[in-house]
C-alpha cells in the first residue's frame, strides 16, 4: 500500500511538471477547437467520466475564455478572443490555466498563446494638423506631427508614414527607444503660400491597413526664437496610493521672443487614451495633475510627450516618464482549486486533501506570500509548483478521536504591515472498523434461585463499540458448550440486540449448582471484530425436598409386592449401583447392626443380674455370724426398679431421611448416666433379713 502511494506520488510530480501549450489566432469564435486536451494529457476516452477533467484558474477572467467538453476531452474557445483587449500592447499574449483531473487528483499547467492578426487600422490622435510657419523659415526645418497608434503588434503594427506628393515638404519617421514611431514634417523649400497635405500611417499587415490625417500649413510673420524646455526629459516616481488631484510634476519652457511670440503654451502630443484619462496637463502652467487613482498592478509606468509652442509655429518637445511604485494594497488571493469533503480514517500519510492557488498582485516583498495552517492538526502544506500548494495528511487519522476537521489555511504577504487572507476546508473523517466491542465489566456473575420460571431474565451484559454506524452495531451470542451432556444453549439464551441473558429451563440445585458460560459481542463491520466475556451463574438452593424415613420400612400397600424402601446412600452412589441392589444391601446391614446391639444389651443384662445375685447370696450366708451385712438397705439389691432404670438410661431417638446428609441420631437428655441411681439412705438401718 505504501509502495502504491509512492508510485502515485511520483506520477503526480511528473504530471505536475509537464506543461501543455497551444497556439491559436485571435478573433476565433465561440466553439472553435483549441486542441485535444485529454489526449495530450494521456487520458483515454474510457477514463474521462471517472477522472472528471475540468479547467481551473486563480482568476475568473481566464476561465471565461475556454471550456472542456466532458465527452471527448477537447479544449474549445468559450468566448471571442481579442488579443488587444486581453494583453494590450504586449508583444506576447497568452492565457494560462490549470487542468484538473480526479481519482487520483492531478493538476497540469496549460498555456494558450494568442497570436495577433491584423485587425486594427493605424489612427492619428487628431484627424487634422494646423501648422503656422514663418515665411522666412529656412529649408530643413522640422515640425513635429506626433504619432499614430496601432493596437496590433509585431509586423502588424505601425511601420511608417507617407506624405502626399508636393514640392514643399517631406515626412520622416523618428523612432524612439521604446520602439514607437512618430512623424516629423521637413521643410524642403521656403513657403510663399498656404498649403494642405494628406499624411498616411501604414502598418505591416497583409494586406496593409492605413490611417489618414490632413495637414494644413499657414504662412506667418517671422518668429525668431523657439521655446526651450528646462529639461530634455522629466522623470518622476510616485506611489500608487497618491491622492487624486495631486500635481505629479510641472514642466517648464521659456521663449526668448517678446510679446505674443514669447508666450508659451503646453500641450500633450503623445498620450494614449488611458493616459489622457489619468493625467491632465495645464496648458498655461505646465503642471501635470492626477485625474484618477493609480494602480501599480494595472500599469507601472507611463510615458508622456509634452510640447511647448509659442504663438507662432515654433515649439520644443520633452518627455515625461512617470513611474508608479508598488504599495502593499492587495491581500493575497487564496483560491481552493479542488478539495475532498470526506476522507477515510485509514488514509495513508501524504494523501492529498486539497489543492490551493495563492496569488498576490503586489510586487517585490509585498507580493511574496507565505502559507500556513492554523492549529495542531494532522495536516501539512506542500508547495507543488509555482503558486500552487497541496494540503496533505501528515499522520494517520482517528475518527474516534476527531470526526470532523475545519482546516484553516492562511496566506500572508511580506508587506509591512502584512496583509493576509484565509480559506477554511471542512473535512469529514469516514469510519473504518478498527475498534472491537468492549464489555462494561471484565466478568459477570449472578445468583439464580432454583425452581425459577423458564424464560426468566438472569442478567444483562453490555458492550460498546467506539466506531460509528454499522461498524458500531453490537450483537451478542453464546459460545458453544455443554452441561451434563446437554448443549449449553438448552439452559440459557442471550438476546442478540440487547445482551439480555434468559433461563430456558427451571434449574435444580440438586442437579446443577453453577454454570460457566462465555458471551461474545460482535460488531457489524466487514470483517467483523469481536470480544468475549465470562459469565458465572450460581444456583441457590431452596427447601424443596421433604425428609423420608428409611427404617423401619413402611408396610407396602395392599396388592403390592415387595418392600418399598428408600436409599440411605448419597445420590452420587446411584452412578455406581442399581437402585434395587442398593436397597437390599442397606436392609441387610441394618438388620445385622440392630441384632448385634440387641445381643450385647441382653448379655449385659444377664451379666449384671448374675453379679447381683451372687452378691446377694454372699450377704445371706455370713449374716448370722459376723453381722457384716447388718444395716444394709434391701433397696440396694437389684430388683425390678434397677432393671427399669438401666433400660431408661439407654433410650435414644433415630431419624433418617432419603438424603443421608440430613439423617440424625439423637440421645435423650437423661441418657448420659452410666450408673444406676442410688436411693437416699434410710433413717435407720434395717436388717437384711427379718428377725424371723
UniProtKB/TrEMBL annotation:
<dbReference type="Pfam" id="PF16492">
    <property type="entry name" value="Cadherin_C_2"/>
</dbReference>
<keyword id="KW-0106">Calcium</keyword>
<keyword id="KW-1133">Transmembrane helix</keyword>
<keyword id="KW-0130">Cell adhesion</keyword>
<feature type="region of interest" description="Disordered">
    <location>
        <begin position="672"/>
        <end position="692"/>
    </location>
</feature>
<feature type="domain" description="Cadherin">
    <location>
        <begin position="230"/>
        <end position="334"/>
    </location>
</feature>
<feature type="domain" description="Cadherin">
    <location>
        <begin position="125"/>
        <end position="229"/>
    </location>
</feature>
<keyword id="KW-0812">Transmembrane</keyword>
<dbReference type="InterPro" id="IPR050174">
    <property type="entry name" value="Protocadherin/Cadherin-CA"/>
</dbReference>
<keyword id="KW-0677">Repeat</keyword>
<dbReference type="InterPro" id="IPR020894">
    <property type="entry name" value="Cadherin_CS"/>
</dbReference>
<keyword id="KW-0472">Membrane</keyword>
<dbReference type="GO" id="GO:0007156">
    <property type="term" value="P:homophilic cell adhesion via plasma membrane adhesion molecules"/>
</dbReference>
<keyword id="KW-0732">Signal</keyword>
<dbReference type="InterPro" id="IPR002126">
    <property type="entry name" value="Cadherin-like_dom"/>
</dbReference>
<dbReference type="InterPro" id="IPR015919">
    <property type="entry name" value="Cadherin-like_sf"/>
</dbReference>
<dbReference type="InterPro" id="IPR032455">
    <property type="entry name" value="Cadherin_C"/>
</dbReference>
<feature type="signal peptide">
    <location>
        <begin position="1"/>
        <end position="17"/>
    </location>
</feature>
<feature type="domain" description="Cadherin">
    <location>
        <begin position="53"/>
        <end position="124"/>
    </location>
</feature>
<keyword id="KW-0325">Glycoprotein</keyword>
<feature type="domain" description="Cadherin">
    <location>
        <begin position="440"/>
        <end position="549"/>
    </location>
</feature>
<dbReference type="Pfam" id="PF00028">
    <property type="entry name" value="Cadherin"/>
</dbReference>
<dbReference type="Pfam" id="PF08266">
    <property type="entry name" value="Cadherin_2"/>
</dbReference>
<dbReference type="GO" id="GO:0005509">
    <property type="term" value="F:calcium ion binding"/>
</dbReference>
<dbReference type="InterPro" id="IPR013164">
    <property type="entry name" value="Cadherin_N"/>
</dbReference>
<protein>
    <submittedName>
        <fullName>PCDGA protein</fullName>
    </submittedName>
</protein>
<feature type="domain" description="Cadherin">
    <location>
        <begin position="335"/>
        <end position="439"/>
    </location>
</feature>
<dbReference type="GO" id="GO:0005886">
    <property type="term" value="C:plasma membrane"/>
</dbReference>
<keyword id="KW-1003">Cell membrane</keyword>
<feature type="transmembrane region" description="Helical">
    <location>
        <begin position="589"/>
        <end position="611"/>
    </location>
</feature>
Amino acid at each position: 500500500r505504501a509502495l502504491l502511494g509512492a508510485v502515485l506520488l511520483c506520477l503526480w510530480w511528473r504530471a505536475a511538471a509537464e506543461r501543455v501549450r497551444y497556439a491559436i489566432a485571435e478573433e476565433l469564435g465561440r466553439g472553435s477547437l483549441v486542441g485535444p486536451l485529454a489526449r495530450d494529457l494521456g487520458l483515454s476516452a474510457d477514463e474521462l467520466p471517472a477522472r472528471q477533467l475540468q479547467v481551473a484558474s486563480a482568476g475568473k477572467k481566464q476561465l471565461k475564455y475556454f471550456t472542456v467538453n466532458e465527452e471527448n476531452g477537447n479544449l474549445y474557445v468559450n468566448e471571442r478572443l481579442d488579443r488587444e483587449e486581453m494583453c494590450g500592447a504586449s508583444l506576447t499574449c497568452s492565457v494560462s490555466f490549470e487542468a484538473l483531473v480526479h481519482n487520483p487528483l492531478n493538476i497540469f499547467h496549460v498555456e494558450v498563446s494568442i497570436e495577433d492578426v491584423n485587425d486594427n487600422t493605424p489612427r492619428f490622435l487628431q484627424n487634422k494638423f494646423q501648422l503656422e510657419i514663418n515665411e522666412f523659415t529656412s529649408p530643413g526645418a522640422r515640425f513635429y506631427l506626433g504619432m499614430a497608434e496601432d493596437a496590433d503588434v509585431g509586423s502588424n503594427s505601425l511601420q511608417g508614414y507617407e506624405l502626399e506628393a508636393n514640392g514643399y515638404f517631406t515626412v520622416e519617421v523618428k523612432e524612439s527607444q521604446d520602439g514607437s514611431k512618430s512623424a516629423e514634417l521637413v521643410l524642403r523649400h521656403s513657403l510663399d503660400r498656404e498649403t494642405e497635405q494628406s499624411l498616411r500611417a501604414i502598418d505591416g499587415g497583409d494586406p496593409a491597413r492605413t490611417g489618414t490625417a490632413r495637414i494644413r500649413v499657414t504662412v506667418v510673420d517671422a518668429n525668431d526664437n523657439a521655446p526651450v524646455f528646462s529639461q530634455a526629459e522629466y522623470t518622476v516616481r510616485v506611489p500608487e496610493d497618491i491622492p487624486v488631484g495631486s500635481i505629479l510634476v510641472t514642466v517648464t519652457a521659456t521663449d526668448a521672443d517678446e510679446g505674443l511670440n514669447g508666450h508659451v503654451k503646453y500641450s500633450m502630443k503623445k498620450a494614449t487614451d488611458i493616459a489622457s484619462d489619468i493625467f491632465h496637463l495645464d496648458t498655461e502652467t505646465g503642471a501635470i495633475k492626477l485625474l484618477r487613482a493609480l494602480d501599480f498592478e494595472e500599469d507601472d509606468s507611463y510615458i508622456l510627450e509634452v510640447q511647448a509652442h509659442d504663438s507662432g509655429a515654433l515649439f520644443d518637445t520633452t518627455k515625461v516618464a512617470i513611474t508608479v511604485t508598488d504599495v502593499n494594497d492587495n491581500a493575497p488571493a487564496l483560491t481552493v482549486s479542488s478539495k475532498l469533503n470526506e476522507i477515510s480514517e485509514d488514509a495513508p500519510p501524504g494523501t492529498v486533501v486539497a489543492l490551493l492557488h495563492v496569488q498576490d498582485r503586489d510586487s517585490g516583498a509585498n507580493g511574496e506570500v507565505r502559507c500556513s495552517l492554523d492549529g495542531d492538526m494532522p495536516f501539512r502544506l506542500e508547495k507543488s509548483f509555482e503558486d500552487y500548494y497541496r494540503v496533505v495528511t501528515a499522520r494517520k487519522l482517528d475518527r474516534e478521536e476527531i470526526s470532523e476537521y475545519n482546516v484553516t489555511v492562511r496566506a500572508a504577504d511580506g508587506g509591512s504591515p502584512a496583509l493576509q487572507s484565509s480559506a477554511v476546508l471542512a473535512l469529514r473523517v469516514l469510519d473504518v472498523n478498527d475498534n472491537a466491542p468492549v464489555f462494561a465489566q471484565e466478568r459477570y456473575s449472578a445468583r439464580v434461585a432454583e425452581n425459577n420460571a423458564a424464560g426468566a431474565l438472569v442478567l444483562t451484559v453490555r458492550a460498546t463499540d467506539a466506531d460509528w454506524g454499522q461498524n458500531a452495531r453490537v450483537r451478542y451470542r453464546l459460545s458453544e458448550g455443554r452441561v451434563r451432556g446437554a448443549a449449553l444453549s438448552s439452559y440459557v439464551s442471550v438476546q442478540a440486540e440487547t445482551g439480555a441473558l434468559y433461563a430456558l429451563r427451571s434449574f435444580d440445585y440438586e442437579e446443577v449448582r453453577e454454570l460457566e458460560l462465555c458471551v461474545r459481542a460482535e460488531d457489524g463491520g466487514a470483517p467483523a471484530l469481536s470480544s468475549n466475556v465470562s459469565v458465572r451463574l450460581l444456583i441457590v438452593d431452596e427447601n424443596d425436598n421433604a425428609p423420608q424415613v428409611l427404617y423401619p420400612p413402611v408396610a407396602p400397600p395392599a396388592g403390592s409386592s415387595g418392600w418399598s424402601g428408600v436409599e440411605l446412600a448419597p445420590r452420587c452412589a446411584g452412578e455406581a449401583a442399581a437402585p434395587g441392589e442398593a436397597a437390599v444391601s442397606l436392609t441387610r446391614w441394618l438388620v445385622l447392626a440392630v441384632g448385634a446391639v440387641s445381643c450385647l444389651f441382653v448379655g449385659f443384662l444377664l451379666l449384671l443380674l448374675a453379679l447381683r445375685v451372687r452378691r446377694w447370696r454372699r450377704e445371706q450366708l455370713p449374716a448370722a455370724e459376723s453381722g457384716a451385712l447388718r444395716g444394709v438397705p434391701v433397696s440396694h439389691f437389684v430388683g425390678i426398679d434397677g432393671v427399669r432404670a438401666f433400660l431408661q438410661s439407654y433410650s435414644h431417638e433415630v431419624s433418617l431421611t432419603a438424603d443421608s446428609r440430613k439423617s440424625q441420631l439423637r440421645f435423650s437428655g437423661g441418657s448420659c448416666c452410666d450408673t444406676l441411681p442410688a436411693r437416699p439412705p434410710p433413717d435407720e438401718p434395717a436388717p437384711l433379713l427379718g428377725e424371723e
